[in-house]
Specification:
By secondary structure, the protein is an alpha+beta fold. The protein is 28% helix and 24% strand.
């Protein structure tokens, strides 16, 4: 397998987080603890490895770094975070394919350049990673991993602008990197005493800004955070401020944050924020594009009921991913909502277990049926998506064994038919069940009485209906995994 072919297998979904304390330094704020809380809130985005890099703010050459395989809570206990001293830092939690699940790929990546240390944490997948890798290798730089994130660090160090006075111009280097590749990344970059938050020009990957508020003086700001999602902000005493704009470079210092520059998209193409973030990956309490993810999922259920209603006694969900849509479906249909499945909270998400056997076993461990709500009932069961089709069949059998009279499956997203290539671990086209079976065949395969998906237009309606700037020209969402229409042509 060539390097380029291998790169295309390294699709992953990750979470990035950064925190910087306000002046004066040294700070009383426990920055490492805040970052570990931020990563814990982003744990759903990656469960294989995590890392934190910290800076005191006064040393160009040294960061305090801890990385490891496993869950955030196992790596960053109280003892570990106490050792991570600093006034600013960045963190990362990672999910990869099984081929990339190695300690060498843990982030943040730290490199020591002629101008000092630089730490990078990245969510996404570079659309033209093969071409960028060949360019870096041609400059005589050795790469120790197949990670796009290491490639980013080397590209930043290797490609200075034409003129630099009094040290490296990191904003110019970042802009140059963005010229080289337009997709797909949200990045946090730390040098000595500042953090940069960077989002690709299409806005494909999420990134947002929060303000850390004093616990004793409500109007006083104690620092700033930048995160893949806003879901952890309230629990750490931070207020959501706004998304990082597509193509924006934001600089965070102890004095605050400001926009360095905003790079436009080629040929005035529309924004391409990943629509699957709304469907599955984001936590429901996160805010994207000025609206809560939960509300979008609720509206998806409302539209789904309008498109594919069926007679039934109760509406329910596959918890928790389908619950918001199920409530929306119930509201629109006037069919009461009732829980029919109990979820074992101590079992991980089946979608992000890389082994097919583990996924199958995971279903048996993951759910139990609430028999009193099921027996003799016609059930509409809502889920957010069907990927390989290995999970739904055992769930339906469980409900039928519990006495369900009918089971009608409704999916609050369109059929997944295409790979992502931009950072989400969607299987190959051959593995996606929607490419193998018609809707009728799939219903029979999983044992459902009927099956219906939300339409692509229905999903777009649910996403944009309450968006504050829904009519703006630049608004747009990537539906590549649903339609095969990519923001840019894939290049190797």
């Amino acid at each position: 397998m060539s390097i380029e072919e291998d790169d295309r297998q390294l699709r992953h979904e990750c979470g990035v987080f950064g925190c910087i304390a306000s002046d004066p330094w040294p700070t009383d704020l426990d920055v490492a603890q805040i970052i570990s809380l931020g990563l814990l809130a982003l744990q759903h985005r990656g469960q294989e490895s995590a890392g934190i890099a910290m800076s005191e703010g006064d040393n160009h050459t040294h960061f305090n770094v801890k990385k490891g395989m496993g869950l955030v809570s196992n790596i960053f206990n109280d003892e570990a975070t106490k050792k991570l001293k600093g006034n600013l830092g960045i963190g990362h939690t990672r999910y990869s394919t099984s081929a990339g699940s190695e300690e060498v790929n843990c982030q943040p990546f730290v490199v020591h350049s002629a101008h000092g240390a630089l730490a990078v944490a990245h969510n996404g997948e570079l659309f033209n990673a093969g071409r960028l890798r060949r360019m870096v290798l041609a400059r005589g730089v050795g790469l120790s991993t197949h990670s796009d994130s290491e490639l980013i660090t080397q590209a930043l160090c290797l490609n200075p602008p034409d003129i630099e006075i009094d040290g490296p111009d990191w904003p110019a280097r970042i802009r140059h990197f963005m010229e080289l590749t337009k997709l797909s990344y949200s990045i946090v970059i730390m040098e000595k005493d500042r953090i940069f938050g960077v989002r690709d020009p299409y806005g494909n990957r999420p990134l947002c800004i929060g303000k850390l508020m004093s616990l004793t003086e409500p109007d006083k700001e104690e620092g700033w955070v930048v995160s893949s999602e806003s879901c952890g902000f309230l629990s750490m005493g931070a207020k959501y401020v706004r998304d990082v704009y597509p193509g924006e470079i934001v600089e965070f210092t102890k004095e605050g944050f400001h926009t360095v520059s905003v790079m436009g998209r080629p040929h005035n193409r529309p924004q391409a924020f990943c629509i699957f973030e709304y469907v599955y990956f984001a936590r429901p309490d996160s805010i994207y594009e000025g609206q809560m993810v939960y509300s979008v999922r609720l509206r998806s259920g409302i539209v789904l009921a309008r498109e594919s209603l069926v007679e039934a006694d109760i509406v329910s969900s596959v918890p928790e991913s389908g619950t918001a849509a199920a409530h929306g479906f119930s509201m629109k249909s006037n069919i009461p909502f009732a829980e029919v499945l109990y979820k074992n909270r101590y079992v991980g998400r089946t979608f992000i277990q890389p082994n097919a056997r583990l996924r199958r076993l995971g279903v048996a461990k993951k759910f139990g049926a609430i028999v009193e709500n099921v027996a003799g009932k016609r059930v509409i069961l809502i889920d957010d998506s069907i990927v390989r089709g290995t999970t739904m069949g055992p769930i339906i059998k469980l409900l039928r064994d519990a006495g369900a009279k009918e089971v009608h499956i409704r999916v609050a997203s369109p059929p997944l038919k295409f790979t992502c290539n931009m950072g989400i671990n969607i299987p190959t086209k051959a593995e996606l069940i929607a490419n193998k079976l018609t809707i009728e065949q799939l219903a029979k395969h999983i044992g459902a009485d009927t099956l219906a998906y939300l339409s692509v237009e229905g999903l777009k309606e649910a996403v944009t209906e309450k968006m504050p700037n829904r009519n703006a020209i630049e608004v747009g969402h990537c539906t590549a995994c649903l339609t095969g229409e990519y923001p840019e042509e894939l290049t190797f």
